[in-house]
Every structure is written in structure tokens, then in C-alpha cells.
Design goal:
The protein has a domain of 46 residues. Helix content is 0%, strand content 36%.
Amino acid sequence: MGNLGHGVGPSIAYFNPVRMTYEIRPTNLFSIEFFAYTPVPEWGGAKLRIPFEDDAIVTERGLEWLYPVKDRILLIR
């Protein structure tokens, strides 16, 4: 989160065998990471992985984004 990245807390990813023992409570912060894939013809059709990450907090109302989520990709050439 913030300047520390998402390595400061436990992973709840599918490959973490103890993830189901964690208790999620209001005020817990999460870095939610997901990916999009697209084939690149110039790479012989190999897929390019595009990672996205947004931060959220657990509240009494559920999971809420800390700021507006990204709705497009910024291409830097």
C-alpha cells in the first residue's frame, strides 16, 4: 500500500495454503491485483500480460476503492 507496495501483509492469493485462516475485518486494506492478456502478432502470437492493481478498504458496507479505479490504459512510448 502506498510507498510500501503490497508486500507488507499476508497474501490471500489462491496459492497461499493458509489464506482461509485469515480473518478479514473492517479497516483492513488490500491491494487488489488482476491481469489482462492480449496476443502480440510481432511476438509470434505470444501473450502480453498487463497487470493492474488498485487499493481498497474493507468497511461495514463491504469493499470500497480508496480512489477511482483505472478505466483505461495509459500507453507511454
